[in-house]
Request: fold
Amino acid sequence: MSTQINTVTGAIPSEDLGKTLMHEHFFFGFPGYAGDSLGYRTREELVSLGVEAAGRAKTQGVKTIVDATPNECGRDPEILREISERSGVQIICSTGYYYEGEGATAYFKFRAALGPADAEIEELMMTELTEGIGDSGIKAGVIKLASGKDVITDYEKMFFLAGAKAQRATGVPIITHTQEGTMGPEQAALLVEAGANPAQVMIGHMDGNTDVAYHMATLAHGVNVAFDRFGVQVIVGAPMDEARKATLLGLLGMGYGDRIMLSHDTINVWLGRPLAMPDAVAELLKNWHITHLFDDIVPFLKGAGVGEELLDSIFTENPRRLFDPSPAPTTTGTVGS
Ligand SMILES: [Zn+2]
Reply:
């Protein structure tokens, strides 16, 4: 029997995942946005903008989108459910907190000061994965973990250790945030040492680093890596797409095509007031949208000799295997013993 995956509209068998974007955000706010009453958005606005984005992805054959928004950054499974129902795109939501530098850290830090919070975090993740988020009845389908630049802080470690335990207990995959191309190998080592199944770990934002040796050191732990910020250029220490493309081609040429995922980390709606972006920044981010991979990067990869079969595997088979690492059922009728 195939593994069941929690989407915001219910469980699906892993073979129904289809073409998948592994790291996007329908809406996201840095903690603090909720206090800016000038940035209030209606639920209907979030839903209709989400349906529009999901629809554009759907025209490119995307069947599933993983929404990587951490709990405290505006995650709202019921709005995601409505977006999924109205667009027909399957959506998987996350459980987990953002990294110390940009997350809401006071809550669990205060609790940790009074006694160990690790068990509480694990209980939160387990409940959201197996029973549901609040009273929504919607279960999270991935565990989201995050660390900062050049360090995994003690605060962040609490979440990594809890996440590894929840991963092992549930078989649900872990997706991560790395900051400015750092700590990929360290995240992988920490998670594997804490008992996570490396085949079910996707180290994220690895395209923030164009050094092939950094990728190989991460892959050496048996995990998967994500080039999931295509279109994000220069801001948050990101390289240009041109550099990412070269690194990606290098890894594909070395035979790592079965352990790489592609996505954009789009933020379709910034919670709070809309961003005022200088023209130069807007120009750098002009391709940061949900079909950029299909409009621009896939044609480039094809032109560079990457075959249809490998591209299909990257968007469909690799995500399926992250959720369900058991071997695909054989259809050739081999005689068992
Ligand atoms: Zn993200």
Summary: The pocket of zinc ion is lined by residues 23, 25, 68, 265 (CB under 6 Å). Residues 333-337 have pLDDT under 50 and may be disordered. DSSP finds eleven helices and ten strands in the chain. The longest helix spans residues 154-170.
